[in-house]
## 1
Amino acid sequence: MKNRNHLTLASVAVAGLTLAGCATSNPPAATTTAPATSTATAAATPAAEPVVKGVGLNVANIDQTVAPCDNFFQYASGNWLKNNPIPASEVSWGSFNELFDKNSAVQRQILDEAAADRTAAKGTNAQKVGDFYASAMDSMAIEKAGIAPLKPELARIDAIKDVKGLQTILGRHQLIGAGSVFNMGVGQDEKNSTQYAVQMQQGGLRLPDRDYYLKDDARSKAIRNAYVTYITNTFALMGETPAVAAKNAATIMRLETRLAKASKSRVDLRDPYANYNKMTVVELQKQYPNLGAPTLLAQQSLSSAKSVIVGQPAFFKEANTMLKAEPLSDWKTYLRWHLVSSLASAMPKAYVDESFKYSQTLTGAKKMQPRWKRMLRSTDGALGEAFGQVYVDKAFTPESKQKALQLVNNLKAAFAEHIQGNAWMSAATKAEALKKLNAFTVKIGYPDKWKDYSALTITRDSYLQNVLNARMWAANFDNNKLGKPIDRTEWGMTPPTVNAYYNPPMNEIVFPAGILQPPFYDPNADDAVNYGGIGAVIGHEMTHGFDDQGRQYDSEGNLRDWWTKEDAEKFTQRAALVGTQFDAFTPLDSVHVNGKLTMGENLADLGGLTIAYTALQKSLAGKPKTKVDGFTPEQRFFLAYAQIWRNNMRPEALRQQVLTDPHSPAQFRTNGPLQNMPQFFEAFGCKEDAKMVRAEAQRAKIW
């Protein structure tokens, strides 16, 4: 079971990476410009001296009509934002997307070559990668097969005669990724990080968030209507009459709305203690008899489990009631929908089209991504480490790994200095914090031990069957960990991924090869650019270990309170100030950023950038501070940071991001931290009354 507490740099959406948006708020809108003040312009404009040309920053992207001290996001990237409209097949477009596309071109070549090679020995990774991608690209075979590969699963649902039969299918749906009613699997025990445990979490919804079922605003209603249409049309494709299809949609909405009402909000899910409720299997069966714990566990080969961690007891209490009270025929309708909708992307074009029509309302997507790009992502999900090995050979050098490791060590040293010099923290808490920092496991580029796919069967015959096989393999891979030692070599992302993460129970920071490239990291760029780019990313992930969630885990990855009461209160007060700042940001009309939902990411951005700045200063010590492209190292550092987050986003996708994503929109990931940093004010000569300058009493500083 993928750890729900992986804290990632950015979030991924169906139509690409959704990371930011052209926003309108205080600071001023990204779509408006203000005349540059003379003082700010003087600080940022190159002086009349020989210009040293640099690498890693394109100064043509800068919008000189905006003062850096008024809106740095717009100043640093305004021309880029204007000259890079969102492609029709994307819901957002920014630095992450550009690098994702660059990586995809390399991956596509690998997959095309693998698919063309029919000589690979059966059972090898080469055969599996080639056949999976070939089957995914064979749209004619997919059309010809129709939903035939799903008939055995549909027959299992039709055969349900009682609650015991329902429990059996709920267990099976955990294996095939149908997401029916709840999520269940094996993951690290957060209070005993040396062991794996069976875990159960709320789920069972197809809309992206519980609020979409419960809110009555026009936007939520439109999304619900689009979802009902999607369900209705999909059942019609499966052969139901219009009347039956419409009735089925109403049934599914009723069941999912009831589950949504019992679900915790995303903010409430951020409390690791409140979402950790361990009980024996006997207790689980006693409290929720209609879930059928023994049956669920047996279906997943987990009968040896003696205990289960239940995330949200109130949700499971309601699910337990519903499983007995709601008609069995309604549950069978619900299960058919969750099975088919979870596999829509692997089905004939008519099913894919209905799914896309719904996503257009949700995200504002104009055009479906090309098939090769969608199937590349599918192959990465199914066999990411198998073809990730080939990707690493083509696109990542040992030198890059060594340089990245050196940057990590430099950031670590800077963070240690910040902890030691922290005026509000006691010596006892500092000692624990340093112990945790020094215990970080650092993973760079790719795994030391690759996953073994020998038990996974892949052929060219059926893409849909390959997807089912891959899902069952992945579930069994995780479930087989129960009772075994923790595998600390395992990765939660594939090598080509343009992202990074911190995993609290492992106390590890992970940087895939995919992100260790321009604009994040460029071996030919000056230190200022690399520290503002990948340095801020590294600092971000490190700070996650000490944000409002991460700080609750100790050096060994266990949920344990290692803070003095006074220090915890001081941290909470300082973090609350960041929350208040972000609550005030409005990316669209009356839509506010949720400071509580985005708290961890905002703290990581502020802390990471602050630490990266210190690390840069240490690297510059004793060296001449040469201007490059007319900018000082400090200015280039902040420009490089802003470059990462440049991003245009469709309004629909931006609304969804604000509601569901723990990451703030891009403009505020840029301007938000900088408004608290005197280092930024000094670099660009910002006056106290500038829009980017918060009053000293209102500035947030934690690390």
## 2
Amino acid sequence: MKEIKSKLIKASVEYVESRIGRFNETMRELEEALKPESRSCMGDKYETSRAMLHLEFEKVSGQMEQFNTLRKTASLIDKQPVLSKVGFGSVVKTTTSNYFIAIPAGEIKVEEESFYVVGVNSPVARELMGKEEGDAFNINGKTSTIKKIF
């Protein structure tokens, strides 16, 4: 069980690092595109293009900041004690799906099993928080039971 959790933590961190790497590359490309060039006779089109590039740069910067926050959150996962109730850092196996309450990273496969890696503020995590093994819960009209928490 601990090996599954370790692999989920590693995959979650790799997901965040990969996204940050892509944002860094995009920001470098945008910075390059924003470097002063000769205006030629384009005038307003030039200014409109620069304004659009600035907006895109700001958008990517904001996304990068969110993923830097996720990086910090991911670094705390391994330090969480194993509890008998679902909380941050819990791996939860249910009768219908498997979840890892950590950061929003989507579906990750570990040892031939799929785990939905969800943030603590997601509807699924909010439904699971504080529940124990054997407790039932309802997501999207489907009732499931918690089989294992680790």
## 3
Amino acid sequence: MIKILSIDGGGIKGLIPALILAEIEKRTQKPVADLFDLVAGASTGGILALGLVTPDENNNPAYKAEEIARLYELKGQFAFPKAFRALSFVLKNLQKLGIISEKYPKKFLYKVFEDLYNSNKLSDALAEVLIPAYDIEKRKVFFFNSKKAKENPIYDFLMKDVAYAGSAAPTYFDPLKLNIADSDYLVLVDGGVYANNPALCALAEAKKMYPDAKDFLVISLGTGNPSKTWLYEDAKKWKRSDWTRKVLDISGHGVADTVDYQLGCLLPDINGQKRYYRFNVILNPNNEAIDNASPQNLGALRALAEQFIYENDETINNLCKTLTE
């Protein structure tokens, strides 16, 4: 059985899947890189995925999932600095007027990635990894792929570049330009714009990687479903600018839910054996922002993850048993 892990995008809410994975590592006594054949992640899920397959100097996993969870809590403010969050109202209006472009300077996020991945490349990954991005010049999807990196050096990018390109959310961070040949290059933004839940992409890639495999197990981790509702009477009054943000939110969650539906159909239980798991929490309205790295919000996200683990204890135990068989 080929075992696939997929992690959704969601900014600072990546803390939630990091904590669920920490629990899986604790129960199995194995690192994620040893439990899965392929690890995929979009946006913040890509950051987490790369961190879990990054080697240390002895070619062992450099980080446990709990350590990466702590990085969200300790370094989230470097990706989304408090000084910029405090000015968010001003920044949003400056963006609308075209005076500034992106909400957060690239240097803050890139510094985190330089510390996290050092000089490791895609080909160094301890398990196969898949990270979606989008090329805005070519108007095409692009997948960072460790298997492809091993086969062709021009696609063997530094992990820090992959992490940034795959999580450069439009309006938050600048695109990244990557050279791939003498006269060719990529201009990439966050793959979450089209594959915020990359689980189906991961299954398709796994089928290509392992053409003789008889069965597949997919574990898909979300970064939280919204609980805030939008009422009809309010929606009737929305202006175009109101709808712009709402449509992005609707498409992100809608795509994720669609992938969940599709995988449930493609990988039904067989003889009581689950082949597809989808773990996701219900967010409180105050915890839905992707860039709220305040201690209060991080504490709330950790509490939501811990509550989910408690309420799904038996399901997680069953999954861990399957992963170690």
## 4
Amino acid sequence: MITDACTILPDRVRRYFETLAQGEQEQIEEIRLRVGRPIEYGAGGTLTFIKQTGGRTSRIEEAALFTAEEGVQLLTRLSQHSLYTLEEEMRRGYVTIRGGHRVGLAGRVVLEQGKVKLIRDVTSFNIRIAREQKGAANAVLPLITPGGHIRNTLIISPPQCGKTTLLRDLARQLSTGVARIGPYKVAVVDERSELAGCVAGIPQKDIGPRTDILDACPKAEGMMMMIRSMAPDVLITDEIGRPEDALALEEAIHAGITVLTSAHGKDLKDIMRRPVLSRLLQSGIFERYLVLSRTPRIGTIAGVYDGTFAECRERLRC
């Protein structure tokens, strides 16, 4: 699963990860590399260092350090030997690589007219492993399609609880058509290149045969473009929160398009503390709310609510 991600790693770092048991490699969610500091990875919600002699350790003094030379090697591999080709991605602070994995970058920022132009002297890399879990939406589809009709849905989730994986599989299943549901024309606005994991505009993940994608496009602008140009039945985007996002969502729903989207938060109360989202929820445009959790496992459905914020205790009848 992490093979594509490992191809960009400096050789020494890659060999360290090859010392881990295969089962542990498959559980890795992110690899964090900081110049002059321990090589670290996250799996199952736990952060662990790589040991100098191979394997894992929780002790800093035993950890292998990531060198400045390896930082240059990694950046060179990311840019395919041409930093110019990376300029736009570096302005956003991340690069999407083959396999749909995303590499976050941090370092010294260069400004141009008060705006970020790029990140120079990159010293931190966060490689987030993109996993395609077909069937992730199986339990969710009945909750958002009572009577075979899709409901406008907001997925509420803390980071790394599976919301992107869920949205991706919803796009795939709705686009393909399953169990008397669909098929539908699906539009995905993928601002962070996480849902489809496009490289050069080509999806690295299976998001269905009838899905159109706007990659690396601001959500609000992208939603309006999709409404005007692609006439979708269903519009999917991730991590809303800005005023312009709310306006575009309302425009889509008023145009008769069903919306599936997500927002960062622990629960409905947490979302209601954010002015933009609170106004959007109070407007009544969403008919379903799903709350995700990591307990007992990533992607657990912790709560299902209808458009009046009433919890659906008999979930399949909600």
